[in-house]
């Protein structure tokens, strides 16, 4: 079987889709021929969802960095691999060509080796969006170390939880990070995290903000000094380590419905194939284009569509250090204009926030270079879709609404720019290899069109989660046990009369706040750490900019005289335990929570009250104390 790698017509999409479902092994074997292998695989696919066990390209040997860097050197060596746009627009941007990036990755791979990092070791990366972050990620992949990138907004407690879970002995960080007019003291947060983690051997610190930091002898090292040591030896070559197709490439922690974040594991070959295939097809990437994904590399979107997808395709990827609203709300448009961006991939929350700032920030910005727009992370509402389409894409650029998850490694359901039809607020059709299925709560498949239910996927695709690090049983119960022989996404979804899919939001206890996943149980645990809190319940409520806001109902012991101060204390407690991204938007103190006789909190009622509903609260007869509901309604914010 041979396939054109890039699907260029609706007809070709239908053919590829059909073949991929009828004959997945042949289909993906043909796709995988487009990569550099040190040794070809023996078996394309081996799987069962009971354990679960999924192996793609077993027996194959490769290194993803050869696919992202080495293989482009002859043809694209002097072309920009990374354009780095600093936080402050007055500072100059940096361009790294493919040759320069490969050089730096090899150099830093040597630094890691020199400091005792070996294949299979876990390396935690906690940095701002500087080019060294991409270099660190790729250098880990080069030597076969497993990277675990932690978003710079997480707290010391979150870092130490993740370090302990992964038993990571190495950390790469920065002195600080610029975000708008703020400096985030990254190294100091790491120092706090390390109080609980004596097993950490080395911390490599990259200089960015020149803030004063503590450096511990024997443990903490300067990035620059370590590079000098390598340069002194001479040629910093570093042949790419041979990896098994199913060796772990990275761990990325994400929140779920239980209290503790889980380490989603992706492996070398399948992830690479999926990140590349989806990048090339969904965005319809053309050689020489500049791709600007506005996510942070601390999230899966940054892994797949700032680093691995674009670089494996030989694209120019734009890394932006700052935030969309600083120095003003025209920053994205200025970047598009300045670097002649072809593909812009961002989140509905950013679109809504920029839309609310008004049109003046678009004045004098030339957006003609744009060809394709993308949306990710949460459902995009009609108004934001139309604004994006008209004002940014000037009604000429298709919008790809890409549905996927940390666990899926890459885009799963999306239109392909200009190739398959778009439909506002719908993610439309599944990519080749993806068989979506809607089920009711009993697990019965909902057949036909015009139905809505829980979204599951029938068979494995190359980028599927392999395990949750150190706890395979957890992976099984969370994703593969709810419905027999299906991967359960946790999302609700409807299928319209033409078979287009529209994601309606999470059906589990996970909130999506500004495109970030926050587990309500994790948040409740953090709030309950406050000495005065007896019990809490978190629900989401509709928020104009964030999509969902966080509403906390809290039973508090001995109220402070000043309720606002107590609220601030609780917010501080959350920031300390998780990070500022999880701060509640509303805190209501209550004397009790609506519970069933068996002690279960009736979140459905709390959710309705948070949404402003005071009647139609459903059946309250099963409540232990129905009076509590009227008290909560009276005090609602
Ligand atoms: O609820 C879905 C929502 O984001 C969740 C995945 O979050 P995370 O693993 O953090 O990855 C975000 C970036 C891929 C999903 O379960 N979601 C993601 N994309 C969309 C979406 N909801 C609606 N439309 C989307 N395009």
The overall strand count is 30
CA-CA gap between termini? 61 Å
Rg calculated over all Cα atoms: 24 Å
Q: Order of strands across the biggest sheet?
A: 12-11-8-6-7-14-15-23
Mean pLDDT reading: 96
Helical element count? 19
CATH architecture of the domain at 98-241: 3-Layer(aba) Sandwich
Provide the helix percentage: 25-40%
Q: What percentage of the residues does DSSP assign to strands (E)?
A: 15-25%
Class of the domain at 98-241, according to the CATH hierarchy? Answer: Alpha Beta
Sheet having the most strands: 8 strands, mixed
The low-confidence runs, each spanning 5 or more residues with pLDDT under 50, are none
Q: Spell out which ligands are present.
A: adenosine-5'-monophosphate-propyl ester
Assembly state here? single chain
How does the overall form come out from the CA principal axes? globular
Annotated CATH topology of the domain at 98-241:
Rossmann fold
Structural category is alpha/beta
Quick structural summary:
The chain has 637 residues and is α/β, with parallel strands linked by helices. It contains 19 helices and 30 strands. Among the domains are: 144 residues, 3-Layer(aba) Sandwich (Rossmann fold), CATH 3.40.50.980; 119 residues, ANL, C-terminal domain (GMP Synthetase, Chain A, domain 3).
Description:
With 637 residues, the protein is α/β, with parallel strands linked by helices. Among the domains are: 98-241, 3-Layer(aba) Sandwich (Rossmann fold); 516-634, ANL, C-terminal domain (GMP Synthetase, Chain A, domain 3, 2-Layer Sandwich). Helix content is 31%, strand content 24%. The protein has an eight-stranded mixed sheet, sandwiched between helices. The protein is globular. The termini are far apart. The model has no long low-confidence stretch (mean pLDDT 96). Adenosine-5'-monophosphate-propyl ester binds next to helix 11, strand 19, strand 20, strand 24 and strand 25.
